[in-house]
Here is the input.
Amino acid sequence: EAGVTQFPSHSVIEKGQTVTLRCDPISGHDNLYWYRRVMGKEIKFLLHFVKESKQDESGMPNNRFLAERTGGTYSTLKVQPAELEDSGVYFCASSQVTGTQHGAFFGQGTRLTVV
Amino acid sequence: AQSVTQLDSQVPVFEEAPVELRCNYSSSVSVYLFWYVQYPNQGLQLLLKYLSGSTLVKGINGFEAEFNKSQTSFHLRKPSVHISDTAEYFCAVTLPSNQAGTALIFGKGTTLSVSS
Here is the structure.
């Protein structure tokens, strides 16, 4: 069974450009999460989808970030326009069942560098 | 609000030595506790979790952790490490919920470096 897949694995863009990250969760997983780790800091929650609906987007840093999950399958996270402080590793995670006792399965992350 | 502190950013250790990675948390309510591991160029993998019950939990790859409510700690241990245990380890908490999952709150991570 395929795990959580993220691509690209690395992206280097200039300040002001747009970047779109993609996450393919494990098939059948209704819950999809985005997290971000800025260098030297904690991994921080960005938002949570249940199927195609945004359950919690309290962690989104500002309106330059737009997440979508059309059809409740894969998700995209767009940063427009990118700023230097957006650099970091963006993780996607998914889980099948509701309830927090099950943890989540993580992808390997997308390393975004804004120069 | 909840928070997690991993007391050591880097832990160097020799192969076959025991290791303890420390984690303390802060919360006014009960939480679930997790340890994740990230091997180089891979995603985070769940090592073990504490939900309730026995305070000593065993995970994959010979790791175990002990929940201590009075000290609000959840330290990770392994009696004898291997080179292959070299990785970054993350402690995390979340609120118990039977609804759609709530977010994990992570510590800053501890890099375990095992050398021969």
Observations:
- Chain A has no helices and eleven strands.
